[in-house]
What does this fold into?
Amino acid sequence: MNEELPSEFDIIIVGTGLSESIIAAAASRIGKKVLHVDNNDYYGDLWASFNLEGLQKFIEQCKQSDLSKTNDEIPSDIEDGEIFIPAYSNKLIQNVVEEWFIPEKSDLLSDALQKCKLTQTNVDGEPKFEGESHGDNEKVDTLESTDSIQPPEGPRYVQNNEWTQEKIMKDYRKFSIDLTPKLLYARGSLVDLLISSNIARYAEFRNVSRVLTWQAETHLQEVPCSRSDVFATKQVSVVEKRMLMKLVNDILKSDNDKRWEKDEYTKSSFKEFLEKYKLTPNVIHYVLYTMAASTRETRFTDGLVRMKKFLNSLGRYGNTPFLWTMYGSGEMPQCFCRLCAVFGGTYCLNRPVKGIILDDKNNTQGIYIGKQKIKAPTIVMGIEKAPEKYLLLNFQNVSHCVFIINKSIKNCDKENLTYLRFPPLIGKYPCNIIEVGPAASACPNNLYLLYMYKIQENPNIKEDLQPYVSKLLNTEYVETTATQSTQTHKNNETFESASIQKENTLPQALWAFYYNIPDMSSTNLKTNVPNNFYLCAGPDHEIDYEFAVHQAKEIFSEIYPNEEFLPRAPDPEEIVLEGEETNTEENTLEDENNDGDKISTTEENVSQAEEVTED
It folds into this structure.
């Protein structure tokens, strides 16, 4: 914290959100001297991932004042002709609510421990009591108390499915909880950028194994994505299968089909187009809400683009078009930060920016970090750090919630990574839902994380999401008392009956975190800002990263219009140090054989990264 930084850079980037990190990597890659700073002591800003303990500390910070100046005192070393604009710390995550649905501790376990001396614990967590040895290896459990309390028959005191706050918090390090969970389209702009720039080597990915939809207002159904799934499913009739395949083929060939340019299509909604195509309501439901990620109001041209993106991404890394980042979406900004650091970028976390410096012609001159003045002709800043006068607050909020649950929303023989786009129940906006489990390094065994988010329509965030929560989860508070546990586990027969009944119930919510994040993707952030000063909006409400990548490319092209955006970075073995001899012929051959179209996945049915040579 006390170390002084160099006094001059080519570009200063404030905030480690995804767009800011991409710009930092791109600038560093072309040889610019980059300073990348953040007020926070973690990477990612609104894109960050936390373990459970870290998230609770973050929640406490969010409950503080919404907007605060870092310090509006004008520095003493401001020169003539310079103008100081104080920076702000904008608390953009608002309406924060944390809620537990389970007791802090198990009453049964607490009562037992008060009357006996716990000496050790078995590997599976079963309490073992102090007793006298009988023979060399035999040990009989006894209780020191005179009360004749014996462990209940059947299952041990605290079953794996009986969670307490204390039990969950012991495994807080095994959680990776995202503020902004996102999926990557297998042929989306972010995957293409990760491959072309060779940044994909900094992360691992897992294929989303199933896509669900809410059908007929009653239950969850799996959406057939691949051709084989379409023909194997019993949810779609033979006639509907032919309709769907004809639509898919026509849309994939639409680039060269002039009929799509007619007013009857371009001026209609995508839903009206599907109805004119004489599809059944069942097929329209699958196409409109899942494949095209649209609503009833989505324009035809927008729905067509979305549908193509879905279809073109199928089959590249699995049966669904989506990928999930191992350890959470917060890994994405860090991947680009790593590349920036490799090529000489300077990083400083937990360094509050005091303000920015302008000249009398409204040109950017630099920033103040603490008492140090650092000059740079260009500044890029995330909206979380921007001076209030540069923010036009015409934006929409996104309602977010993340749950810890005790089982999957749709049971299956294996653990699935699930995406569900829930059609609107109240209002006009659908709800994006992502379920991840231990295989994605998101939570401990026997637990799942369930993310929900949608454009906010109700000022009360819990009421806004409640229609979707009530369809998928049980959010009643769970009582675990000694009497209840003893009665429930009186014998194995009763326990087995309870287990069968539980399979037919909704997953139990154990913990929830509600919050709002503003979506400024449609906000004009170029108005009233200084010259060579660029603001980056935070995450948008869409399921993918397209907006963040497009924003980064646009800002970079404005700053460096004649430079290549994130050229491929060499692998470590390709780097030649000064004085080393190289075999030019051999290196050329390796380059020609390396198509670079590779990304690392850990999906069970994808043992190694798929390599695809583009035409």
